[in-house]
């Protein structure tokens, strides 16, 4: 195998384990907040999307289907962390709003994720992180293009 082929193979081989390790650590952190991992991710992403996000937008941000999100949203509502309100422009749709308790928990979860990233990437030069971000963006864009052609 040439050096380039070996490098490409090693890159591809590392993607899944690194992603899985990151998600396992993040899930453990979110689980420590005494809510389910799915609820934790929903709170974090809803906070990032802003007030009144549509349920479909939240599902896409998390990377799941709308149907998969329904139970989590119901749980968040029951726990007093989220309110679902009818969309004024489309009564069939709902917009999600964090309650004050939900906002506080989302901030706490996000802070823990910030700390996790800082610890995992401690000592790695910014230039290396920047290069990795550019690389992942390029690969994600090409993969999306290739899926569109399939």
Tell me what portion of residues adopts beta-strand conformation: 5-15%
Please, how many domains? 1
For the record, the CATH architecture stands as: Orthogonal Bundle
Fraction of helical residues: over 70%
CATH homologous superfamily placement:
Winged helix-like DNA-binding domain superfamily/Winged helix DNA-binding domain
End-to-end distance, in Å? Answer: 28 Å
Provide a count of the helices. 6
N to C succession of SSEs: HHEHHEEHH
Largest sheet: 3 strands, antiparallel
Question: Which features does this protein show?
Answer:
150 residues, mainly alpha, Arc Repressor Mutant, subunit A, 3-stranded antiparallel beta sheet, 6 helices, 3 strands, globular
Secondary structure elements and pairings:
Layout: H1 3-31, H2 37-49, E1 53-54, H3 55-62, H4 66-78, E2 82-86, E3 94-98, H5 100-120, H6 126-149
Antiparallel strand pairs: 1-3, 2-3
Give an overview in words.
The chain has six helices and three strands; from the N terminus they run H-H-E-H-H-E-E-H-H. The longest helix has 29 residues, at 3-31. A hairpin with a 7-residue loop joins strand 2 and strand 3. The chain has one domain: Winged helix-like DNA-binding domain superfamily/Winged helix DNA-binding domain (Arc Repressor Mutant, subunit A, Orthogonal Bundle), CATH 1.10.10.10. The radius of gyration is 18 Å and the shape is globular. Helix 1 runs antiparallel to helix 5 (100-120). It has helices at residues 3-31, 37-49, 55-62, 66-78, 100-120, 126-149, and strands spanning 53-54, 82-86, 94-98. Strands 1-3-2 form a three-stranded antiparallel sheet. With 150 residues, it is mainly alpha-helical. The protein starts with a helix and ends with a helix. This is MarR family transcriptional regulator. Residues 1-141 form the HTH marR-type domain. One of its GO terms (molecular function) is DNA-binding transcription factor activity.
């Amino acid at each position: 195998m040439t050096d380039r082929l070996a490098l490409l193979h090693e890159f591809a081989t590392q993607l899944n384990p690194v992603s899985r390790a990151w998600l396992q650590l993040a899930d453990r952190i979110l689980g420590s907040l005494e809510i389910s991992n799915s609820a934790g991710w929903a709170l974090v992403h809803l906070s990032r999307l802003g007030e009144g996000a549509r349920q479909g937008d939240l599902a896409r941000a998390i990377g799941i289907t709308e149907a998969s999100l329904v139970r989590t949203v119901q749980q968040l509502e029951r726990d007093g962390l989220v309110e679902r309100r009818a969309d004024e422009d489309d009564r069939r749709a709902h917009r999600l709003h964090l309650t004050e308790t939900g906002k506080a928990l989302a901030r706490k979860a996000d802070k823990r994720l910030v700390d996790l990233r800082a610890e995992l990437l401690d000592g790695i030069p910014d230039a290396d992180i920047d290069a990795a971000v550019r690389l992942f963006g390029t690969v994600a864009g090409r993969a999306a293009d290739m899926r569109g052609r399939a």
